[in-house]
Design a protein that fits this description.
Structural class: mainly alpha
Strand content: under 5%
Low-confidence stretches: none
Distance between the termini: 143 Å
Number of strands: 0
Order of helices and strands: HHHHH
Radius of gyration: 63 Å
Number of helices: 5
């Protein structure tokens, strides 16, 4: 009856005890697991904290090493940039020296060519290929060679300046990148766990862009440094070459200029000597001409003086030819008259022959006088060309050191 009256929804006391026991066991088990998890979490937190600190410390050290490495290469690039800029500035002054030397060669060449042109105006026997002309042609050739050499050297200098500027540009671009990279790494090195504005960057782990290896990074800057060193050394060699060329051309120009001037002085002296001798000969000819003119006058007078006696003798003969009959005798008088006429006629002919010869000599002296006067004019023309036109023009020549 009691079993019939028991509520079927109620648990048995043993079940109640069992349930409570299960709750305690489950709770203790959960607590134990939680305690283990807590202990494990503390260990894990401690481990991760130490690992994170160590990793962050390693990164900071490597970041510091990287910054020092960038600073080293930046300093190297700065030094090379300063050197290449300095060498380029000096090379620009050498370029200016070359340009001034090239400009300075133009006037001497023009003067040499003008001298050659003026000397073409010499006439007669003085139009000779003398030592002056030889030296002038050599001077023009030397100057043309120098101008060509300076032109080539100037082109080489311009090309070297271009190469230097190319190396400078590469160094500046590399330095610009180094500065940017150092600025970024300085910023990174300044960041701490307590820094503001630190954020999660979901895409930070993605490798974007063209990353290069550290070796390639070093090689890139090393190539720029080596290129700058090479162009700097080339500039030093070119400067030495330019110095040598400018010194040599100045010596060559002075030497050849003096050779030409010496040849001019010698030639002018020769022409003056020749002119003096011609003037002496002209004076002699003119004296002889005057003497010959006096001689001709004397001969003409002698001829005139001889004509009267011959007329007298011939008149006497003509008169005696009219003697009558036997009186027409070939006596001593007639014989003497005949002899007198013959002698006077003969002497008169001799005087006329002498007069003709004297007149011929006078004509020869006149021709010689004209020839000497023309030759003296030729010499005067030559002296005017050489001494006035050429030598005075060459006095303005000034060969400088460049």
């Amino acid at each position: 009856m009691a079993r019939q009256l028991q509520d079927p929804s109620k648990l048995h006391p043993s079940e109640w005890y069992t349930a409570n026991k299960m709750q305690r066991a489950t709770t203790e088990s959960q607590k134990s697991r939680s305690e283990c998890m807590t202990a494990e979490s503390c260990r894990l937190v401690d481990e991760i904290e130490k690992t994170t600190q160590k990793t962050q410390s390693d990164v900071n050290k490597k970041l510091e090493q990287r910054r020092e490495e960038i600073k080293f290469w930046k300093q190297e690039l700065d030094n090379k940039l300063e050197q290449i800029v300095h060498e380029t500035e000096i090379l620009l002054t050498f370029k200016n020296r070359l340009e001034r030397a090239l400009e300075g060669c133009k006037e001497p060449l023009v003067i040499a060519q003008k001298c050659l042109m003026y000397r073409q105006r010499r006439v007669g026997v003085d139009l000779v290929h003398d030592e002056v002309e030889q030296e002038l042609l050599k001077e023009a050739e030397v100057l043309q060679g120098i101008i060509a050499l300076l032109g080539r050297t100037l082109e080489q200098t311009n090309e070297q300046i271009r190469q230097n500027r190319s190396a400078k540009y590469d160094l500046e671009m590399d330095l610009k990148d180094k500065f940017t990279a150092l600025t970024i790494d300085d910023y990174c090195a300044s960041l701490t766990n307590d820094s503001p504005h630190i954020i999660y960057a979901d895409n930070a782990m993605e490798l974007e862009g063209n990353f290069v290896s550290p070796e390639d990074w070093i090689d890139f800057s090393n190539i720029n440094v080596e290129k700058a060193d090479k162009q700097r050394n080339n500039s030093l060699s070119l400067k030495a070459l330019i110095d040598g060329i400018l010194s040599q051309i100045a010596n060559d120009m002075r030497r050849q200029c003096e050779m030409v001037n010496t040849a001019f002085r010698n030639r002018v002296k020769e022409v003056k000597d020749a002119k003096d001798k011609l003037e002496t000969l002209l004076a002699m000819v003119m004296d002889e001409t005057a003497s010959q003119e006096k001689n001709i006058a004397a001969l003409k007078k002698a001829i005139a003086d001889t004509e009267a006696p011959v007329k007298v003798a011939q008149t006497r003969l003509e008169a005696r030819n009219h003697r009558p009959n036997v009186e027409l005798c070939y006596d001593t008088v007639h014989s003497s008259l005949m002899s007198e006429v013959q002698e006077i006629t003969k002497n008169l002919q001799r005087l006329k022959d002498a007069l003709a010869q004297a007149q011929a000599e006078l004509k020869g002296l006149s021709r010689r006088q004209l020839s000497l006067e023309e030759e003296i004019k030729v010499k005067e023309n030559t002296l005017y060309i050489d001494e006035v036109l050429c030598m005075q023009m060459r006095e303005s020549l000034c060969i400088n050191n460049y």
